[in-house]
Amino acid sequence: PARAAAAETRSNGCARAWTKIHHRHHRGAAVDDGHERESFIARDISRTRRRDAGGDAAGAVVGVARPGDRVSETRDVRDAEAQTKYVMDWARARVGFEPRIKITWYPGRYATDKGSIVPVGDITTRVPKQDRDVAILEEPEHLCWYHPGARWTSRFKHVVGIIHTNYLEYARREEDGERKESILRWINHLTTRCHTHKVIKLSDAVQDFARSITSNVHGVSNGFIDAGKAKSKEIKRSGSGAFTRGAYFIGKCVWAKGYSELMHVVGDFNEQYAKKGERLEMDVYGDGDDFKEVQTEFARKNLPLNLLGRLDHADAKILDYKIFINPSLSDVVATTSAEALAMGKFVVCAEHPSNAFFATFPNCRTYSNMDEFAKVIREVMASVPKPMTEAEIHRLTWEAATERLLDAAAPCDETKHTIQAHFSDWFAARFHNAVTCSEALRCLIGGGAGTLVPPDDLANWSPDSWGGGLMDRKPFAADFGCAAP
């Protein structure tokens, strides 16, 4: 079977070790769904080892920034041991079993001009040689933008990259966005070609990559699944009475996360499409760098959008809402949409590659224009979500996502290297390495001073303040954890 694959990387039918390189771009995310993936991969390998000889539990390598860099609004990450315990406790609570993962830290810098974490030095050396079997790189393009060391493909037998951020969309929204987008598209293609054997795109909302396939390998935490099952029973008993609230949106409060699109669809519906007595009102949950600006725009346009600040999507309040409206066009796959479906809600989203997976579920409604949006809104307001079948629920779980991942990660005919591909990869890697191994060029292109050589002592590392490159935006006050002037 395909999930027994990665044939050249397995020992006695089972990979000896899956090392998952966890690296996220978001400001402040200390833990997220990537750690759930690690836990389920490790459990799957552990189960396989009962059938096949050999094999080690999955390993995880997680980035940490220097003391003083703003990577978390709520936690001090200087104590690696305490942070490891926090991550493991979080993962244990989310997945409901003891995660068989080990966490190793590598140094990273918070790049204030990018709102991103940039690794420091060659982080492939952080993985012990005996564990260099299969590597899964979360966001390989970002992870390798400034990678100065050996190719990942030369250190590991099989390297798989998972693409789940639409960096081109973010670049497009900045000043001189069209030029930045073109350059970044080329760089992303170059870095993934150099450092992966295969690329998995969560959806076709992102650019094309060499040797890539599309598969949604994200899952939903068991808490959302359990909430949805309870809601299904309530719907069978009470019908529409199972929901006491209407529509809502939840997401990080930055313009690029769908807030512009939300203002557009709600404003246009109420002004141009609403019939007599109709009015689309929504509660909006989220916090972020653009909170004040978004709040001001809501008020200026007199939109019936109640911006209520941060709230966990698993909060009990959310269970009362019947409709989740997510008009964002910048997502690759919106985790919040999957969670809303799992909780038994209607999900209304744009007809867009990022929503192709969700569109296959009976409670999802998509629209391609405002006429269709108005029609869909009237339908979901007047009806009740259909309880999902066990098969539909399973497709949303991390168990199913892990099965899809192991299938997608396996070598296949579509990802075989030709002689021409080997030459192209070698040339691209030589060029990339020549640029990223120069301290001067790293500074010029935004890699940051002092990021070429890793520190000997991570705990007491205190590098200079971050400086951006030629094309980087000027950092906002919020990037430093300060209030905007």
Question: What is the residue-mean pLDDT, rounded to a whole number?
Answer: 82
Main sheet, how many strands, which sense, barrel? Answer: 8 strands, mixed
N- and C-termini, Cα separation: 59 Å
Number of helices: 15
Instruction: Note the beta-strand portion.
Output: 15-25%
Helix share, percent: 25-40%
Widest β-sheet, arrangement of strands: 6-5-4-3-7-8-9-10
- Report the count of strand segments: 16
Show unreliable segments.
1-16, 25-30, 49-55, 70-74, 476-485
Classification by helices and strands: alpha/beta
Shape: globular
What's the alpha carbon Rg, rounded to whole Å? 23 Å
Question: Short summary of the structure?
Answer:
An 8-stranded mixed sheet has the order 6-5-4-3-7-8-9-10. Strands 13-12-11-14-15-16 form a 6-stranded parallel sheet, sandwiched between helices. Strands 1-2 form a two-stranded antiparallel ribbon. The protein contains 15 helices and 16 strands.
